[in-house]
Design a protein that fits this description.
The structure is a homodimer of 338-residue chains.
Chain A: E1 9-12, H1 20-23, E2 29-35, H2 40-47, E3 52-58, H3 67-79, E4 87-92, H4 94-106, E5 112-117, H5 120-126, E6 131-136, E7 139-146, E8 151-154, H6 164-181, H7 183-190, H8 198-215, H9 230-240, H10 247-255, H11 262-274, H12 285-294, E9 298-299, E10 302-310, E11 313-320, H13 321-334
Parallel strand pairs in A: 1-8, 2-3, 2-4, 4-5, 5-8
Antiparallel strand pairs in A: 6-7, 9-10, 10-11
Amino acid sequence: MALGADSYDILLQRGLLAKAGTLLNLGRKVLVVTDSGVPAQYAAQLAAQCAQPVLVTVQQGEGAKSFDGLQTLLGAMLDAGFHRGDCVVAVGGGVVGDLAGFAAATYMRGIDFYNIPTTSLSQVDSSIGGKTAINFNGVKNIVGTFYQPPRVLVDPDLLATLPPRQLAAGFAEAIKAGMIADEALLALFETGAAEARLEEVLLRALRVKKDVVEQDEKEAGLRRILNFGHTLGHGIESVYGLGGLLHGECVALGMLPMCKTPALRQRLSSVLARYHLPTHAAFDPDLVFAAVCHDKKGAGNKTAIVEVETAGHALMRTVENEALRQLLVREAKEGIGA
Amino acid sequence: MALGADSYDILLQRGLLAKAGTLLNLGRKVLVVTDSGVPAQYAAQLAAQCAQPVLVTVQQGEGAKSFDGLQTLLGAMLDAGFHRGDCVVAVGGGVVGDLAGFAAATYMRGIDFYNIPTTSLSQVDSSIGGKTAINFNGVKNIVGTFYQPPRVLVDPDLLATLPPRQLAAGFAEAIKAGMIADEALLALFETGAAEARLEEVLLRALRVKKDVVEQDEKEAGLRRILNFGHTLGHGIESVYGLGGLLHGECVALGMLPMCKTPALRQRLSSVLARYHLPTHAAFDPDLVFAAVCHDKKGAGNKTAIVEVETAGHALMRTVENEALRQLLVREAKEGIGA
């Protein structure tokens, strides 16, 4: 990831967790952060390679991304006498990475943060790019920073323990990457080769994100193409996420109405179905519209959306909120709400 | 302030507050943050120049620099529907700047932050350099970020309402700047010309800080010279701050033992006395030593200290904690503890 003084390496290889001690500077105090949904042996394996590990296991789920969760991590560092030269390592999915990254970004105005993603979602997407965040007053990711790690270790072996539904939900972000910037990546899913060629999937998806982030680290413009499927997806997630839909599943649903041709939509729909990702969901268009408007990507009466007309090429456009509402009403009747 | 992409202007002129609307982009939602110790007309004057002002007045004092204070500001922005293009303006001293800056740095991963310092302490020092922070678990400034404002307005007229003791306490940081890097600035205080030549004092003190921050924004090395007087000063402040000593007064006391010659110490002592800053204080060396060790600038068994042998030139050195303890015991008997 080439970001001037904040540049860093993303290593992708099977077996990296076992070698973390030789790849990261763990000869100091290390806050190892994981959650109760991650197999405990991963964090234990990392902690065993640290000179002075302090292990914190937060509760699984978005609830950990809170000021309470943040204070738990900061308090643990303070109690253990962490100084500026010490570090934080996240061993988990997006929730753990977002929370641990924010704690590292703010403890003593920033200490080193390493990320070892353990889910497909975080391995293809959230572990790179430097976004850290917690939720506040019911709004997702509303408080956080951009904070780049000095190194990210992506170990595909860690996905072996991931339940199939979680694995597929993470793949939705890789399918997104294919849709906006890499048709060959989309084709890997289309032909059902994704699992057999897992490293290639991860590499291609990470490369799409890396290329975008390098050009627009702070999301001033181009980086918004990574939000393909997320504008509606977040809205659906706000309303129905607690009812059981995973983030990646909401993104899958959010991508479909943003396909500009029926042919492309059909193509995407087939890919999603192949990985048992949802292509239809009943939803209340008014509730989802209200959630979209409440979401941070909108501003004023207009909302920035990302569409795809030809696989591998994203288009950015600003639409009136009313047009978005009408789209949702239409979809609820005919499309993803069938 | 030349910091690459994060460079910004620091404007210093009488009457700037009245012209803020022409100097800052206030044609948007603006969170105006002040505290109950700042004359209310300053924030009101700024708010009157904003398209959509939201005014928050926090309680005066360090207590506002807390997670509660932070959530108050973030919640106010969320309630008012602030987006990435909106901004925060601090109208106050160091507490307001640190807190408002941290809120701006973390709301939606960072929105514009302008600073209009109203105290001598913040006008000569804390309003530039990009340090934001809150206190946590009894440790000062332990949580925060480096976050540079796009513009800082220093209006010396605002100091007219500052109580003389507060004014002098802020001057302690300017005296510090003179001691470490600008003997002519020290001489302005020595000759009693500081108040009559206020703009020159502010300009020179800000220039010292600017030059240092430009070379070492994130305090990897050189920036630590700005901590002259602060290692012991923070320790004294931790123990006796609530008992009535102001930050600048503690810095004054903390500088004296760090003068490497009796002649320089005498010179500094005379300058401090001229501005009614403390040159003697009874203190418990063990309590202050414990506070210094607890302070974030120490690491392990050693502490980084800054000394001055010749006015205008700072020296950095790492000493054993035990040597620092002995110094404090000596001082408590003979020097600042007389």
